[in-house]
Design a protein that fits this description.
The protein is α/β, with parallel strands linked by helices and about 450 residues long. Helices cover about 50% and strands about 15% of the residues. Helix 7 packs across helix 8 and helix 8 runs antiparallel to helix 10.
């Protein structure tokens, strides 16, 4: 079963770039092949849900990061090969008897485009095969390659079982005779087409592992450690948002005794950014990718739900509040299945009046707190709700982002502290902007 993450959560965390800024996908997408980019997107759409799979992918990326090697294939080879293997029309099949004087003349004057495309695709694929054989021989001899063992064995199965033992005889040759082209083309484009596509698939994964390892080093990201088990746990140190310049990092520890995290803070104190940072780290950790933090150990979850940038659903005639209610209902339905979800709600019930928002926040948060397998991070401006929940819930962890006043100017530290904020500086900001002076003119 795969890790569940819905479109709202992907949009909230800007995984694929909905909000016009650089996305998390863009941050990691530096592959050399189109299939590598496609597989990377697939990894993001279907994160992993077992500690073994996550830790093995993490170990594989780490392995290639430690080797500090470049992707061993020139990128230009893949465009020619993709077109070549995709063109299996029988009418383009070459035959030795077609090597006529007329064809040779047309080839000499550069008029035989279809043949030249086939020849280019064929020689490019031969080069890819030979580079793969050489690369796998080298990797198998490197200590610590066991994390990549499954892929190595799949490469070697192709080398052994596909009819490609002859390719090394053609190493470095840019031009093949028509007879050889026809012979090799039949083998690779038709007889062994499936095996060649499998080879390119394995290379695309290698492309991802090498490129992500380089990104981890460049960005100083770290690899999270996944653990299985029923107990809910997240121990993250130094988490920050990868796109915030000079971002302030924070630590957070959550277990079954503190799985309801209640976050307060003034406007602009950094609540939304912190929640996005946390969500991105949890998401990337389940993909098996490096994260923007100093360290992270976590219990594997069944899914991630965030509600940070929730828009009105005008097409259905929903108000913002009703959209919030429907979102909470969807999350409640999934959580009630007694699975493990990581849930983030930023400003729960902001679309209604203060009294209803207070009552609903307390009631829903208290109900969520009883689902001890899941983790809930809930922010609000209504600090009284936190005080009420502290009386009702033993497993609540209250944290806040403080505001320091320097004269009439609020200053934000963006550093989490335990407790509930007492900051109420909304009117100070309004006064500093002299809005009343403008209106009273």
């Amino acid at each position: 079963m795969s890790f569940l993450v819905d479109k709202q959560s992907l949009d909230d965390l800007n995984v694929f770039g909905r909000h016009g800024r650089d996305s998390i996908y863009t941050l990691f997408c530096h592959t050399h092949s189109r299939e590598g980019a496609t597989l990377l997107e697939e990894m993001f759409r279907y994160p992993l849900s077992s500690a073994e799979e996550i830790n093995n992918r993490t170990a594989t990326i780490r392995f290639f990061q430690r080797l500090e090697i470049d992707f061993p294939y020139p990128g230009y080879l893949f465009d020619a090969v993709d077109f070549y293997l995709g063109n299996t029309d029988a009418r383009t099949k070459l035959a030795a008897e077609n090597d006529t004087l007329n064809r040779k003349f047309r080839s000499a004057i550069g008029a035989e485009n279809e043949y030249e495309q086939i020849h280019k695709g064929l020689t490019s694929l031969i080069e890819i095969i030979n580079l793969s054989k050489e690369f796998i021989r080298k990797v198998r001899a490197i200590p610590g390659h066991e994390c990549y063992k499954t892929d190595i064995e799949q490469f070697e199965t192709i080398f052994r079982e596909a009819n490609i033992g002859w390719t090394e005889r053609e190493t470095g040759k840019k031009r093949l005779s028509y007879a050889k082209t026809a012979e090799y083309d039949k083998i690779l484009r038709y007889d062994e087409n499936a095996a060649m596509r499998k080879l390119l698939h394995l290379i695309a994964y290698l492309d991802i592992y090498i490129s992500v390892g380089k990104i981890a080093k460049k960005q100083s990201f770290v690899f999270a450690q996944a653990v299985d088990g029923e107990d809910n746990m997240l121990d993250i140190k130094g988490v920050y948002h990868p796109y915030v310049p000079n971002a302030v990092s924070n630590d957070l520890f959550i277990d079954k005794n503190s799985n309801l995290v209640f976050l307060t803070g003034a406007n602009m104190a950094g609540k939304s950014t912190f929640m996005k940072s946390l969500g991105i780290a949890v998401f990337l950790a389940h993909v098996g990718f490096p994260i923007p933090a100093k360290s992270m150990t976590f219990s594997v979850q069944d899914g991630l739900f965030t509600t940070i940038n929730l828009a009105d659903n005008l097409n259905l005639g929903y108000s913002h509040f009703y959209t919030e209610v429907m979102r909470v209902k969807k999350v409640a339905y999934e959580v009630a299945k007694d699975k493990k979800f990581f849930v983030i709600f930023d400003e729960l019930f902001r679309g209604t009046n203060v009294k209803d928002a207070y009552d609903a926040t307390v009631a829903i948060s208290a109900a969520f707190s009883k689902r001890s397998k899941s983790t809930f991070v809930i922010s609000t401006h209504i600090i009284e709700a936190g005080e009420a929940l502290q009386e009702q819930c033993e497993n609540i962890q209250c944290i806040f982002l403080p505001t320091e006043m320097r004269g009439d100017t609020p200053v934000y530290t963006y550093t989490i502290q335990p407790g509930i904020t007492a900051d109420r500086h909304g009117m100070v900001i309004i006064q500093n902007e002299k809005i009343m002076d403008i209106l009273n003119g």
